[in-house]
Design a protein that fits this description.
There is one protein chain. The chain is 13% helix and 45% strand. It is elongated. The chain starts with 5 loop residues before the first strand and ends with a strand.
């Protein structure tokens, strides 16, 4: 009894700047309805994995020849995949446009793709879509697959997600009623904060607000550490770092930004 030999057609690896502790984004690549039907009929298998996916073909013939036969006999030109995430904060810590809903589209025949370490880095194009259920879509051209395989190379795609840059905003709450004078925020990275400015919070508490003067890229493991000083002396060492759950949009005089609000009781 013969055993079907599966050959790797292509692989997609995903990198995300937010994950700086060795973790990988937990994404799912689901074939479109038409591509899924083709895979079942033509003996393709999608292997989903954390950080990407692999597509295999069950055929005893040379892979490039098999794909050429598919194009010739079926007229199939592309394989399409939706990119999905169960992480409801994905579009918060990822560099998506602030206004509007939509998804990132990738295509193997995009002229702005580039090669890096023998991988084709796919160029993203944002498309507005109020009803998009996916965070992205990938289209792989069989013509591109055949050309690469005919040249004796394996097909390896890469998708890079950038993390969103946000303003860090600290609210210092004097819950003990102690005199707080000459307070400031110091860092080990040269990032400065404006303030303090006295503000009234939604719960009617008074707080002293500090805002970072630059937008700081979101990281799962923060790369910067800040301390609260009074009179030049540290009174709170290691202020909290932002969570995707505490981020909101803010309209400034010149642009719309995302802000991470953090609250510190002293």
């Amino acid at each position: 009894m013969s055993t079907t030999q599966y050959q790797l057609v292509f692989k997609i690896d995903v990198n995300h700047a937010y994950f700086n502790g060795g973790e990988e984004p937990d994404l799912f690549f689901n074939p479109s309805v038409s591509s899924n039907q083709s895979f079942k009929r033509l003996n393709f298998v999608v292997n989903g994995r954390k950080g990407g996916m692999d597509l295999f073909a069950g055929s005893p013939f040379p892979l490039a020849d098999y794909l050429k036969t598919i194009v010739l006999e079926t007229g199939i030109e592309f394989f399409d995949f939706d990119i999905l995430s169960k992480d409801t904060s994905f579009t918060t810590y990822t560099d998506f446009p602030i206004d509007g809903l939509g998804l990132l589209k990738y295509s193997s025949d995009d002229k702005l793709n580039h090669t890096e370490n023998e991988m084709t880095v796919l160029h993203p194009i944002f498309e507005s879509d109020l009803y998009a259920s996916a965070i992205g879509m990938v289209r792989v051209s069989l013509k591109d697959l055949i050309a690469t395989l005919d040249a004796g190379r394996s097909v390896h795609f890469n998708i890079n997600f950038n993390s969103r840059s946000i303003q860090w905003q600290y609210h210092i709450i004097n819950y003990r009623g102690l005199p707080l004078t000459d307070i400031s925020i110091a860092s080990d990275s040269g990032i400065h904060f404006s303030g303090p400015t006295e503000v009234v919070l939604e719960n009617n508490q008074t707080a002293q607000q500090f805002d970072s003067n630059v937008l700081i890229p979101f990281r799962q493991n923060p790369e910067h550490s800040f301390d609260l000083l009074m009179g030049g002396k540290i009174i709170v060492k290691g202020l909290p770092s932002p969570s995707p759950l505490g981020v909101y949009p803010l309209e400034t005089d010149s642009e719309k930004i995302m802000v991470a609000a953090m609250y510190v009781n002293v």
